């Protein structure tokens, strides 16, 4: 007689049945986060009109995803990487978490030099989950809360949450149970397996941005985007054995510089008459899109697509200030400028959510949301009702937008604070803070004291500054922005010549 | 002007200073756990007399550790691996956590067949930190609590906390931030790097006990004990950069079977006239001892020895029922029997604690303690005062024994429950439960109903069963043991012929 038959069945069944109900209440969740991808870097039109960019780039799987879910046409990130990623993982606005610029090395700021202003003492070491670590923001991460609530948590790709040699450098310290290739680096030394993803094998020290963990692909003709996808699928194979729902944070290194040629797609773009570098850029996009499709195929083949939510997002605007062959600052048109800018080109992102059980297919939403909203949204999706993170949560769940049951964006204002010096110059690039209120957007420049006011609904390209005409709105929004920044204990730069802090927007 | 000079110093200093104070209150902690090491597998005498084994084996670094700390002569584990490791990581007695036998594959019991009894539905999948996983005990692990309280948590070596393809298989799921070579397997396919630690490279599936993660040493003439030590030191190099205290759980695969020759030490033992297999066994011991010494050297060289606690322990008694060339069941003499037995040979462990700040050098303690005591002890050492694990904590901190400020063992009883069928036969090996109360130890055999009573102080070899003479004590301890087991909801086997449960010790 087998031993299992002796155990009274009544002992087992209620237990397993409860567990299965709980699992069914908890969908799998995939965050598919692209790096430095602009709002127009796709064949899927997020604007009211189809643009030249939509015609150039080919992203059939983004179209497929949009076809089975909801597009968001006004989804915002921060203008650079670390602040966005930190906000996503913490629910906290960058003005509050103070990881306002990009991180890399311990106790080392990546601010560029400015003759006029000195950036504040921002959290140059990023986030961490432990106390007493200098220059970090202590948090309870989204992954940690999901893990604590029964999710199997997988990190794949770019992390960029904390500086090297600090606890936040490693996703394992932030509640992830699997980490594939995530570390302190926010860029990549090479996309190419043939180049060992930038890792040195001659005994010399590898560059800080060499991609870790993918040794098995070294020397092979494979792009990092593909290698990460293969590894993510392996992690999902294993996840399915664990009797837990999974959270896959699939954060591609693509389409960050260096703009290398993914030869699976490159020639097609050359044949369209595009330059070498623009063709290479397009090949990075299409390689990322193939990864999306491969993961969607995987979910379908494994019969878990119906119970899996996919959230597609980028961390900041497309790079338009350097490294591209065409006219600078125009690659995100109709948006003005790109990565690093307070203009829409720097912060508006392509965003799609597929949630078969709840979201209407082929739907589109024009309400604005911001990157920290992912935190409460995902926890609501996961049916995690009680959580008590160390940090305040500024984000608002956009589940009501997805289900059509409410509009949390109504009457809401969005805020940005970048008291730093990014480096390249260009439209809207500088130490700024901004507020979006309905159709209006106010931008304040800490160094010059200049203010700009745009009606985004009428002027998506932010070329008609209305600050002179609508001083009433400038005054109202300046006051609101100043109050907000002080309330969340935001930071501002200091004037180099006087050593005094720059003024808040409502002090000018 | 450097930007740091602009920031008011007053903002910084109190913060960093507080952090440093906190760090100083929190020592680094190393658990050095050996696998299947018997009480006599060392040149360091844990008995009142020096034995032949103490003369055969050479463990200079255990002597060195004892020289700087406290030896425990009556430290207990369970009689097999998983229950001990689970108790250490949870503070819970095996009778309660029900991971009573060793784990390996999901939903698969490793109980051997018996004609008489059927083991209960024990937690064959081990522990995990999430709910709804069948046949597991849900816990908050020691590593998790330490991590949540600011420790950098490193797992190196054998895990054996949960079955393959369940959440507990992987230390990353249990609060460890680094995992080197830990998985579901409790043994090892090979010690040898030249043999890839048992991993197949011919496309065939590797055995379940192939050691993971150490690919870089494949094909090299290196023992796994050495490879783990090198990797642990690298992890400590990095830990020192993180401004956190560290918890290193250094759990060697040694000295588990297969008994392979570590050629760095083997010939010396052959020259003493020992057989091939006994010399190989001795070489495994000395390889483990070298690792201990290397880590002690590391701490000293790096100036952190004074603030680092080392706890040396084994998980169960030395294997004496199979695989050795000398007379079976004698290899732990003066203790009777070995691994798998309720006798002292199966459960008494070599234990040493070095804590420079608090523990007297060259000291010895004869009070008894048990493996689940490590949990509250380590948390007390780490100055973690409030914690709220899911599981009840049965262990008692032995910090007062270390500091001489109290005796938590006084008047305390220790309990074991093994309602399983291990496999090999031998003295004290079977489905048993036991209680130790002062000098007395009662063992109850579930299948036969037999009871044995030993006075451990007078009869460490457990050869004089006093159950006939001291029926008063048998009755008292039977009652106590039965009550305890029912109180913690312990499990017992079932009789195969009737399907009825075996009797509790106080029902016979």
Write the layout of secondary structure elements.
Two copies of one chain form a homodimer.
Chain A: H1 9-25, E1 28-34, H2 52-56, H3 60-67, E2 70-76, H4 81-90, H5 94-97, E3 117-118, E4 127-128, E5 137-138, H6 142-148, E6 152-157, E7 178-180, H7 224-239, E8 246-251, H8 266-271, H9 276-301, E9 308-314, H10 344-347, E10 348-354, E11 363-370, H11 374-381, H12 399-403, E12 413-418, E13 432-437, E14 440-445, E15 451-455, H13 471-487, E16 494-495
Helix pairs in contact in A: 3-9, 7-9
Descriptive labels:
globular, homodimer, 508 residues, Alkaline Phosphatase, subunit A, 16 strands, alpha/beta, 13 helices, disordered N terminus, 26% helix, eight-stranded mixed sheet
| CATH architecture identity of chain A | 3-Layer(aba) Sandwich
Determine the structural class of chain A based on helices, strands and strand pairing.
alpha/beta
How would you characterize the largest beta sheet of chain A? Answer: 8 strands, mixed
Broad shape of chain A: globular
Oligomer: homodimer
Task: Report the CATH C-level class of chain A.
Answer: Alpha Beta
């Amino acid at each position: 007689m087998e031993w299992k038959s002796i155990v009274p069945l009544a002992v087992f069944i209620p237990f397993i049945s409860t567990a299965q109900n709980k699992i069914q209440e908890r969908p799998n969740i995939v965050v598919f986060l692209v790096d430095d991808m602009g709002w127009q870097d796709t064949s899927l039109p997020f604007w009211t009109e189809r643009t030249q960019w939509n015609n150039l780039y080919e992203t059939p799987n983004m179209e497929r995803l949009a076809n089975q879910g909801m597009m968001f046409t006004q989804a915002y990130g921060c203008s650079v990487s670390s602040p966005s990623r930190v906000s996503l993982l913490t629910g906290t606005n960058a003005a509050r978490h103070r990881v306002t610029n990009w991180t890399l090395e311990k106790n080392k700021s990546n601010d560029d030099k400015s003759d006029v202003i000195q950036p504040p003492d921002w959290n140059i070491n990023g986030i961490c989950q432990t106390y007493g670590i200098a220059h970090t923001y202590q948090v309870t991460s989204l992954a940690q809360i999901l893990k604590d609530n029964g999710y199997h948590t997988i990190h794949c790709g770019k992390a960029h949450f904390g500086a090297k040699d600090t606890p936040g450098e490693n996703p394992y310290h932030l509640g992830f149970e699997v980490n594939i290739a995530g570390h302190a680096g926010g860029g990549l030394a090479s996309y190419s397996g043939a180049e060992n993803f930038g890792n040195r094998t001659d005994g010399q020290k590898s560059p800080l941005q060499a991609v870790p963990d993918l040794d098995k692909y070294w020397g092979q003709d494979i792009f990092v985007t593909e290698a990460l996808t293969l590894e993510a699928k392996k992690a999902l194979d294993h996840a399915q054995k664990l009797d837990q729902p999974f959270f896959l944070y699939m954060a591609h290194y693509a389409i960050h510089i260096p703009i290398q040629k993914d030869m699976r797609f490159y020639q097609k773009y050359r044949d369209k008459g595009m330059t070498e570098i623009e063709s290479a850029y397009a090949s990075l996009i299409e390689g990322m899109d193939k990864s999306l499709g491969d993961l969607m195929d995987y979910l379908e083949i494994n019969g878990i697509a119906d119970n899996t939510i996919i959230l597609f997002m980028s961390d900041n605007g497309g790079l338009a200030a350097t490294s591209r062959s065409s006219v600078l600052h125009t690659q995100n048109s109709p948006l003005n400028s790109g990565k690093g800018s307070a203009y829409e080109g720097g912060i508006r992102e392509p965003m799609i959510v597929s949630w078969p059980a709840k979201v209407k297919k082929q739907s589109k939403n024009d309400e604005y949301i911001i990157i920290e909203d992912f935190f409460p949204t995902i926890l609501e999706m996961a049916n995690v009702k009680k959580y008590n993170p160390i940090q305040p949560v500024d984000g608002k769940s956009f589940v009501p937008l997805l289900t059509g049951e409410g509009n949390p964006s109504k009457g809401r204002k969005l805020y940005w604070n970048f008291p730093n010096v990014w480096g390249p110059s260009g439209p809207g690039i500088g130490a700024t803070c901004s507020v979006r209120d309905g159709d209006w957007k106010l931008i304040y420049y800490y160094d010059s004291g200049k203010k700009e006011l745009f009606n985004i609904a009428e002027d998506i390209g932010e070329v008609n500054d209305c600050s002179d005409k609508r001083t009433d709105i400038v005054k109202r929004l300046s006051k609101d922005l100043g109050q907000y920044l002080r309330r969340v204990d935001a930071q501002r730069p200091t004037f180099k010549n006087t050593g005094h802090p720059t003024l808040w927007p409502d002090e000018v």
